[in-house]
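Discussion board: Methods & Data

I've been asked by a reviewer to show the raw model output for two of the constructs in my manuscript, not just the figures. I'm not sure how much to include, so I'm pasting the format here to get opinions. Each protein appears as its amino acid sequence followed by a line of discrete structure tokens. Is this the kind of thing reviewers expect to see in a supplement, or should I convert it first? Here is construct A:
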Amino acid sequence: MEILAFGVQADEKPLIEQAFRDLPPVRCLDVFLTSDTAPIAAGHEIVSTSVNADLGAGVLEILAAGGTRMVAQRSTGFNNIDLTTAERLGITIARVSYYSPHSVAEFAWTLAMAVNRRIVRASTRTRDFDFRLDGLMGRDMHGRTAGVLGTGRIGEAFARIAHGFGMRLLGWDIAENPACMELGMRYVPKEELLAESDLVSLHVPLMPETRHLIDAAALRAMQDDAILVNSSRGGLIDTAALVTEVREGRFTGVGLDVYEAEAGLFFLDKSLEPVADDTLARLVTFPNVLVTSHQAYYTEDAVRQIVGTTARNVADYRAGRRSENVLVPRS
């Protein structure tokens, strides 16, 4: 039996091969799972997928028809999976329920400081031997207010870094995190957090109730010179509304590692193709906006944890065991 892994990055391949060394051979593909590529999985009982895989009803039907009985997703988020259809088809679904929160939290801060201190613009200038400081003035984070939307493991890690900067902490979540409260975090309604925060960072999962959590009204509630960072899921922000606000000269900086229409774009080289996404094309032209391609999780430490957990999920499936990572159990 061969295990088929879709959407494997070059840096990720040796880590997957090492993690799966005690399992049946794993075949790594750099193509992502879509309706067009799903037929490749025919004859493979176990398939592993990346965060941007299409696991909607149509793709699951193709996988099931080809004999796939288990999908091991190499991510925490699973909003891309039709769990109801998977259960109907008898396909076991497992994910990685936990990996290093520091990778994402640290990258969120990387985005925040990059836009605050105009790092991209400064780097571009110095490559041209332009060493002027005009337009590069940033602000101290010390003494300012950080608003953390979502205070789970990653939000807590982000808050700890903010506390190290000497920032005042505001939080919003369905449940208060005692560890964040020990740092001095005060939980407030979302509207109050947006209005008072100099820096707003998103760390909530994407669900129907959180889609466009930051909509036009939320953006207008923020301070004109605030910094907005999203390293969670692109659908949390109404991107069209964000473009409107940035076009009007608002926000010191916006750092986005995710984009609501990133499927079919992120992780791929589109540099030689016509730009089809007008919203993203406009967004990346703003000098105070920095967009990266969903790489916040992409540290050796985190990826080792992700692929290690994925391998254990596969081993559990083969042994008939069930863990907290299973979203749809084996039928």
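Construct B, same format:
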Amino acid sequence: MVKNINKQLNQFAPWQQVSFCIALAERMYPNYVLFCEGTEFQGQKTFRKMLDLFWEKLTVKGAKVNFEIQSEHFEAAIPNIEDYDMYGVYPALDACVVMTCAFNSMLVKQEDAEEAINASQTSIATVASFIEATSEEELTDEDIFADELMQQELAFQNELLELLDETRSPELLKAVRKFGRNEGISNIGISLD
């Protein structure tokens, strides 16, 4: 299933790859917010602003955003895992990694899908490490990939690919954004409500 995701990402245009990364970051946003709320880390507004800027650039024709400068601003919103002795920093950092993939994808505009594939693998790894962290026994890769959360993650990514496999339009990108929000539930099942 993962190979299929990578294969499809390789066939995508740059705008589709950026949209894929940002939809994953949007879905991981609750993980980041929960970490900020639990630690008083000041990154939540910056993270939200970056997501909104990406969506604006993707949906509004002629929107001007300097992603080079924004990516420098975003660095302050990336937590240092050595400063925190809690599990929550890892899913938060992974959300930042996915956002960084989106920046790289937007700035480099190369034809290969390396950044989108990294984003996909990072989100999958977030789910895998969460499943391991919350399990009371040793798990094999088969156990992890059979877990309901992982099945949901792979289904989400595949649905996202299908959604993006259309002609670009503001309506499509608004639908992708809504899909990425996943009704406020993150890839590891966290909801802010």
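Answer (T.O., handling editor elsewhere):
This is acceptable in a supplement if you add a one-line summary per construct. For B, something like: The domain at 2-184 is CATH 1.20.1590.10 (YP_001051499.1 fold like).
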